[in-house]
Write a structure and sequence with these properties.
With 499 residues, this protein is an alpha/beta fold. It has three domains: 197 residues, no CATH class; 129 residues, Alpha-Beta Plaits; 155 residues, Diphthamide synthesis DPH1/DPH2 domain 1 (Rossmann fold, 3-Layer(aba) Sandwich). It has 16 helices and ten strands. Strands 1, 2, 3, 4 and 5 form a five-stranded antiparallel sheet that branches. A five-stranded parallel sheet has the order 6-10-9-7-8, with helices on both faces. Helix 3 runs antiparallel to helix 7 and helix 3 packs parallel to helix 8. It is elongated, with a radius of gyration of 45 Å. About 4% of the residues have low confidence.
Length: 499
Amino acid sequence: MNEEEVQIDLMTLLHYILRKWRSIIVMMLILAVAANLYSVKKSMAEVAAAGEVQEKSTEKAVEEIKTALTDDEIEQVELAYRMYSYNAEIYRDNEQYLENFAVMQLSPNEIPTEMLSYQVKKDAAEEELVNIFAMYENALLDEDTCKAVAAVFGEKYANTSVRELIKIEDTLNVLHTDVVMTQSMNSGILNIRIYATDQEQCEQIAEIIKDRMQVYTQQLQQTFGQFIVNSVAEQYYMSSDSEINDQKSDAIDAVSSAYSAMQNASAGLTEDQMTYYNLLVKPIEEEKVQENDKGVETAITPTVQYVNIKYILIGLLAGMFLAVCWYAVIYIMTQTVKDADEVKAVTNLPVFGMVLKNKQTEKGNRIDRWIDSWFAHGRKSEDTELLLMRISHEVAMLAEQKNMQHLLLTVYESNGEETREYAEDLAEKLSELGMTVTCTDGLISNNTEVLKQLEYADGAVFVEQLMKSDRKEIRDAVALCERCKVEVLGNVVIGSDSY
């Protein structure tokens, strides 16, 4: 093999690429996200362009139809549009009130009701106790309490008015006849009435009010001094409420009246006036359709597509392709030895043995070991200790045949600490067999200490690691040994960290 020519083992290349599966997956995910973001940006631009085109088209149509109308006809259409717009707003507000407010979901004649009654006593003037009642009525339902109560009804009714469902009042009031003397103390009853859609909700809301009652009572005691609050009754029952019945009837009547007014707003308009009128009310109609069909894509109103499976798949495939190409280029362009056959070709010397897996990969990820098993080519993973023992005997036997007593084990510092550990293990085993062995960090011609080691050495053995040992360094080491008349017996190959 010439120095410029390198043979590539496709199976080894595939093994190397597959062992980079983590980085490949990361690259695939990055490009998939990037591709989807590009799709979102493109979709937003298309939606914006469609809206702009539609708006310009509407404006152009309005200008064209207005040229066919007199000023009086235009004024009639715009008056009809204002009537339609006004009634559309009334229709929308009352419809939302009927659908999204919890009080409108109650049956006025059968309302699940919870009544909490508290007796309040204070040794003070009657007016002060009246003020305490007023504070309970006005401030017991604070913002946090209202949010907690609304949450009981569910997210749909988040904007409901809690004060329509909970009524706080002291008995009789008006003339303060609720305040009576009890055991030399002024006393009165505070009633808290709770409406809900069923008994379970009533009980949940009652617990919220009880907790709030305790906290707020402590706050009032800091202002008015000590007073006594006792729970005297808690009752669940079905009730009726004419006020709610009137509210629901009024909302339904408002929806019906507004709808009729909207339908009749265009009465008496000519055909050209109706064209102009329809163009004016079109945005209101489209808004109503979007509210009724939320989440439904239509051909009229394009929506932004935030997840595009097609672009995600393209991103995944592009990420995999780029990552595979990148690692293939690195594999081909790097000047390190890739397999045992290449080590033989570079040194023209035999390989005594190859440690297939280093200590790190023996403990590696299950997926890594599974990939490695695909490329074992029928070889069984030999125990490292036994493998080094066999190699040491083979090296010692060859050295004895050539009357060599002092060997150099060459391992380059760039190969890593584990490779040096293997070299030291091999040196120890050779020493046990009676050989004098020295480990050196590579053979460099301008290093005086290395030259001295070569002067006393009878032979050398190279310990190389795949994907780390540089071909040029190996050739330079072989050439240096030849110049120093030191015979190189062969190589010991350590498997790559990468595959």
